[in-house]
Amino acid sequence: MKTPxxxxxxxxxGQISYALLFRLAAGELAGIDQPVVLRLLEVPEAVAALQGVxxxxxxxxxxxxxxxxxxxxxxxxxxxxxxxxxxxxxPRTAGMERRDLLQINxxxxxxxxxxxxTAAKRDVKVLVVGNPANTNALITLSNAPExxxxxxxxxxxxxxxxxxxxxxxxxxxxxxxxxxVAIWGNHSPTQYPDLHHALVAGRPALEKVELAWYRDVFxxxxxxxxxxxxxxxxxxxxxxxxxxxxxxxxxxxxxxxxNDWVSMGVYSDGSYxxxxxxxxxFPVVTxxxxxxxxxxxxxxxxxxxxxxxxxxxxxxxxxxxxHLLRS
Length: 327
Fold this sequence. Notes:
With 327 residues, this protein is α/β, with parallel strands linked by helices. The chain folds into two domains: 5-154, Rossmann fold (3-Layer(aba) Sandwich); 157-318, Lactate dehydrogenase/glycoside hydrolase, family 4, C-terminal (L-2-Hydroxyisocaproate Dehydrogenase, Chain A, domain 2), CATH 3.90.110. Helix content is 41%, strand content 19%. The chain is built from ten helices and 14 strands. The strands form four sheets. A six-stranded parallel beta sheet has the order 3-2-1-4-5-6. A three-stranded antiparallel beta sheet has the order 7-10-11, with helices on one face. A three-stranded antiparallel beta sheet has the order 12-13-14.
C-alpha cells in the first residue's frame, strides 16, 4: 500500500469543506489507489459539529480513507502535512466589504502560517481558499519562512471555471472545447477575466463573440458572480468553490493539459511588470508538482489597465496587513 497523503483542511465543519471532504475521501484528488489521512481543523466551538461529519465519512466506508484527525490545534492539523486546504475563514455576507473580511481573517492566517512552518513537510502544497484569498496567502507564506513561497497559492480556479462556463454557454460549445481563458490579479470584483488568448473549438474566442458582450457582459458577470450568488442563495458559493479547490490542487499535482493553462494565484516574480512579492493570479502551466507562469502573452492597453488596477488593490491590501508580514 502507498504511504497515505496527509491532507489538512481548515474550517472543516463549514459548507465548502463539507462539499470537499467526501470527494477527497473517495479518491478524486490523487486517485483511488492513493490512501489519504484527513487532518481536520476547526475552532473549539465547532469541533462537536465536526464529529458528525467524521461519522458520515466513516459511513462511506471508503477504502481510500486511511484515517481522520480532528483538532482545534493547527500544530496537530498540519503535522507532516503533504497538502493543505486553508478554507476556514469568516465568509463574506451581503453588504460586507473586502476590508472587513481582511481585518477579521488576517490574524488566523498568520497563526496558520506559523504552524505550517513548524509542523508541515517542507514540500507541503498550500492552497488558500478563505477570502480575501490572495492577501491571506501572502500573510500565510510570510509567516512560514522555512517553506518556499512557491509552495503557496490562492484560488483563482473558481473564477476561471466561471469564465469557461459563461463563454461556453454564450458560444453554444461544450466547456471541453474552451481553453486558454485567463484570470489576472485578485479574487475580487477587480479581477480581470481575459479572453484575448482564449480559444473556442480551436478558434480565437473573440472571433465568436461581440466585443461589446465581452467588455460589457462577460467581464462584469464573472467579476460579480460571487456577489450574485450571495444575493440569490443567501450564502456564498460552496459546492462550486469546493469543486474548484479540488481541481486547483489536482492540476498542481498532476499537470495541465497540453496547449492549455489554468489560473492560479501565485507569488509574483515580476512577470508582466507585476510587483514582485504579491500573490497575484496568472495563467500558469503545471507539471511534476510545480508551476510556470505563462510568458510573453501580448497585452494591449485594455489588458494592462485592468492588470494594474489589480496590482494596486493588492498593494493596498498588503499595506493594511503589513504588521502581520515577516520581513
